[in-house]
Amino acid sequence: MIFVFLDRDESGVIENRGYENNEYKVYLIFSACAAVRIVSDFFATEEGYDFLFIEPQGAKIRHEGFNNPLDVVIEKSDVVLTFKSDDSETYSGFTLRWFCNG
Fold first, then answer.
1. CA distance 64 to 62
2. Which of 15, 16, 46, 96 is the most exposed place for a label (fewest CB within 10 A)?
3. Using CA atoms, how far apart are residues 66 and 45, in angstroms rounded to an integer?
4. Cα–Cα distances in angstroms (integers) from residue 80 to residues 51, 60, 62, 89, in the given order
5. What is the DSSP letter of 66?
């Protein structure tokens, strides 16, 4: 398991290109925002097997697939993103941007 901390900024980039089988990465955003918007510039994972979970308090959003745009606003300053891949195919990965919303 790999933890990546993104600390008290107002924006940032999360990139996981060329991910591997059995990958498990946790990205922790501790923003200086009241709400965080996350959008994908690129997203390609093996649908049904490799997932990105976005976890604000009390909810979980699952995102997967090829050429599948993501645009979500989380009404919290701290957000956890977890990426998990299985042990078969891998795709190109993803590039996400996050920034303060509003």
1. 7
2. 15
3. 6
4. 14, 10, 12, 25
5. B
CB neighbour class for 99 (10 Å; exposed up to 12, middle 13-18, buried from 19): middle
| Phi, psi dihedrals of residue 24, rounded to the nearest 5° | -145, 105
Domains, the chain, with CATH or none: 2-100 (2.60.120.290)
Strands of 24-30's sheet, edge to edge?
2-7, 24-30, 78-84, 51-55, 61-63
pTM of the predicted model over 0.85? yes
Structure tokens, 27: 């990205």
Q: What angle do CA 27, 33, 36 make, to 5 degrees?
A: 55
Amino acid identity, residue 102? G
Q: What angle do CA 69, 8, 27 make, to 5 degrees?
A: 45
Percentage of the chain lying above the pLDDT 90 cut = 73
Looking up tokens 């649908």 gives 47
